[in-house]
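Entry 14. Ran structure prediction on the chain below.
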Amino acid sequence: MTLSTPADAQHTAATTKKNITRLIVATSVGNALEWYDISVYAYFAVYLSKAFFPANDPTTSLLLTFGSFGLSFLIRPIGGIVLGAYADRHGRKASLMLSIVLMTFGTLVLALMPTYQTIGILAPIGVMLARLVQGFSAGGEFGSSTAFLVEHMPERRGFVASNSRARASAACSGPASVRS
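Output, structure tokens:
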């Protein structure tokens, strides 16, 4: 039989708190990066419309750009279902890593995509496919990251779950406006 001393108990509590802090920071950073990719696309929509969509009519190319932006929101529930089932079978951490890899792949495809003038109709198709991958990834990441945190902090699950919702709300709303 071993007895633990108060020093051992304090060390264990400090280590646990440090691990929980690392988990919260890691999931917050992953969530922020996913939303950052989505926000950058919306912010640069005018430039993306000129580069990746037919430029005959600027309004049509901008509408196509925002249409592909909207695709990422439509595919999210499917990503949540598929990656949620994957997380249930293979673990939350594996699901989060898959989500990050998918988001990285979608972002890489967008970054390396040749312009419409270079490859023609393949450019808008590639952009739309990349946006679908990004939306799928974002849908799976949000639920898995919340469940991951709740599973690691069952005694504070309400706080952790609400914190992840607040992170998503803050990421969606963009920069906070100053009110007087």
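The two ends are 63 Å apart (CA to CA). Will compare against last week's run tomorrow.
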